[in-house]
Write a structure and sequence with these properties.
With 163 residues, the chain is of the alpha+beta class. It has a single domain, classed as Sulfite Oxidase, Chain A, domain 2 (Alpha-Beta Complex). It has four helices and ten strands, in the order H-E-E-H-E-E-H-E-E-H-E-E-E-E. Strands 2-1-10-5-6 form a five-stranded mixed beta sheet. A hairpin with a 4-residue loop joins strand 5 and strand 6. The termini are far apart. 23% of the residues are buried. This is Molybdopterin-dependent oxidoreductase. Keywords: Signal. InterPro entries: OxRdtase_Mopterin-bd_dom, OxRdtase_Mopterin-bd_sf.
């Protein structure tokens, strides 16, 4: 009887884990290739690190994928093509709780800036906890971490000309 009592909760936990959908990052909007990226997809992309100070002034090293690399994979206008009308385009980042931040495409393009903006999946070498991840946007070098958002679920490229 004791064995059955232990087996049923374990079985229910397994069923619950199997029923959960794996995380996907949605990349949409003014892109030539809309994407649904899994954590495996992101881990397979070339990675980098960025430093960010928390509100207490302690510095952390985040590991992840440059946002610019994700945008390039989605076919977003970058580099020499990022001029004229294309400079009115921006990236809207959406988090699981509905929090949103935006960046102009020029802020993310290495032909305009040396600033690092990454989608991090690790902090100080450890995977982000569920309350902060699986992805955190990290904007290195900003005086306030307000745009360094938790639980990023979607990236949408928009045009300032949309009305």
């Amino acid at each position: 009887m004791k064995t059955i009592a232990c087996f049923i909760p374990a079985l229910l936990l397994c069923i619950n884990l199997l029923a959960q959908k794996p995380f996907t990052l949605k990349v949409s909007g003014v892109v030539s290739k809309p994407l649904q990226l899994t954590m495996e997809d992101l881990n397979a992309m070339p990675g980098t690190t960025a430093l960010l100070q928390d509100r207490d002034g302690k510095s952390h090293t985040y590991s992840g994928v440059p946002v610019s690399a994700i945008l390039t994979k989605a076919g977003v206008t970058t580099g020499k093509a990022l001029h004229g009308e294309n400079l009115s385009k921006y990236l809207l980042v959406t988090c699981a709780d509905g929090y949103e931040v935006l960046f102009s495409l020029a802020e993310l393009d290495s032909s305009f800036t040396d600033k690092k903006v990454i989608l991090a999946y690790k902090a100080d070498g450890v995977a982000l906890p569920p309350s902060k991840g699986p992805l955190r946007l990290v904007a290195e070098g900003e005086k306030r971490p307000a745009r360094s958002s938790y639980q990023v679920v979607a990236l949408a490229v928009r045009s300032g000309r949309e009305r």
